[in-house]
Predict the structure.
Amino acid sequence: MIPARGVELVDTRDLKSLASIGMRVRFPPQAPSIMKRLLVIDALNLMFRNYIVNPSLSTNGQPIGGLKGFLQSLQKLIRETKPDQVVICWDGEGGSQRRKSQNKGYKEGRKPIRLNRDIRNLTENEEISNKIWQQTRLVEYLNELPIVQLMLPAVEADDIISVVVQHPSFAGWQKVIVSSDKDFFQLCDGETIVFRPIQKQIINQTGLVEQHGIHPKNFALAIAIAGDKSDNLPGVGGVGLPTISKRFPFLAEDVSYDIDTLMKYSKEHAGKVKAYTNVLEKRAVVEENYRLMQLYTPSVSVQGRQKINYALGNFKPEFAKTNVKAMMIEDGFGVVNFVDMYAWMNKIVADSRI
């Protein structure tokens, strides 16, 4: 894998093409106290959804939907968010190993990535090679843009994103996390929002409380109870987010509650509603899920944080537009229009020199 300018690089995961659905979402303007906006992208989440749904072929007939679709999605995101800086976060090789050491079933049983079209022009092995090539090539493209790419071995993108949005250098910035993953809801605060491109949703802390009756400070605790099928983490049977909101109303408060408080409350109300008894009986499950799912304290070593600090602190925005255009010709992109993205990339470089 080609190393990215920033930390290191890459692995695999899964999303739906922003290019195919279009984006008609108005992002809230920055508050007066928030001077800048940071766009933080869950890279593999975006790349693989484009790979799945975008049928683009090169002029030589090779699939390039993941690569080309990602860049098209990036252009749309930049047009919509008008960021002052872009950080793209990748899952590191073996990124799930720490969590799998705690729970061997973590992310097991995930269905293989399948293209959502009937016409296939490659064998299964050729598709695997092509997918790897598209991902590797995407890293090379992004290296020519004035954006930061981050990846750490054995660290998931979720943890890197958590470090980035909580990084002191972005205090006072409005942070926009781009991912369909609900786990990021727990990171919402007065400056951080989550954009879910598939659902065309913008989630902030106020909206999360209104929609789910759960404050971001307690969302990791809530999903630890509910579980997460996509990560193969079963929760407490019969206790989903709507039930959690109804039976544990204090989780809507702007206060960080712990498992002991949850269990004490359940014990006080046990016998009245089965949900409380179920939670008490599955305390071990809730505790393990919480350890795996919480992002408040990201699982990044001191050395890993130092690498991220160095990458963010020493990054010098550069835009090699000629190289990008040459690569697109080489890869058979055909007719494309990235004028909006080029203009904004030039602006990022110019602003960095002021």
